[in-house]
Design goal:
The chain is α/β, with parallel strands linked by helices and 177 residues long. The protein has 7 helices and 5 strands; from the N terminus they run βαβαβαβαβααα. The structure holds 4'-phosphopantetheine (PNS).
């Protein structure tokens, strides 16, 4: 009898910071695979609020209840990371309408780079479908705990508020810190 290889998927993103939308996708995607590797990567098009170590820490705390996830940081090409993880599937959480053109472009670029890697699109449930870290970064300076609670886990609200209150004159962290 041949042994089946474990089904591994990678869920990449900036996670700056992790939202309840990300968490919804993680919980659901983790049920589809033996192992789900959360890849914290670098999006050169976005200004970061948290450094990679902080993001990993926030994710780790958010997913303690999900047994088969692993969290890793990656710096190179996403498809190389997917292959290094021994995976053939990458999961992208997409928001309906707004994300589709960019996500299709990214999917086709990744497909061109690695034909053995498939992209699986998932949409977070209900109201969470429209949440994004970029939206959080826009509203967080103007919103209180109650306004942020539909979008972020409690410990992430703490971290965002601490970051915003820490030293407003400091430049935000860069991705490579
Ligand atoms: O959460 P994000 O910001 O949409 O995540 C984007 C991320 C980090 C997954 C993407 O920018 C990425 O894959 N970066 C690594 C470089 C790469 O492989 N780019 C090719 C995709 S077109």
């Amino acid at each position: 009898m041949t042994e089946l290889s474990p089904r591994i998927a990678v869920y990449p993103g900036s996670f700056d910071p992790i939202t309840l939308g990300h968490l919804n996708v993680i919980e659901r995607a983790s049920r589809l695979f033996d192992r789900l590797i959360i890849g914290v990567g670098m999006n050169i098009g976005k200004q970061a609020m948290f450094c990679p170590e902080e993001r990993l820490h926030l994710i780790r705390e958010a997913v303690v209840h999900v047994e088969n996830v692993e969290i890793r940081h990656f710096t190179g090409l996403l498809v190389d990371f997917v292959r290094d993880c021994g995976a053939k599937v990458l999961v992208r959480g997409v928001r309906p309408i707004t994300d589709i053109p960019a996500e299709l472009t990214m999917m086709m670029a990744n497909r061109r780079l690695a034909q053995d890697v498939e992209t699986l699109f998932m949409i977070a449930d209900g109201e969470l479908a429209h949440v994004s870290s970029s939206l959080i970064k826009q509203i967080a300076p103007l919103a209180g705990r109650e306004e942020l609670s539909p979008f972020l886990p409690d410990h992430v609200i703490d971290a965002v508020q601490a970051k915003l209150n820490s030293s407003p004159d400091d430049p935000v962290h860069t991705e490579l810190e």
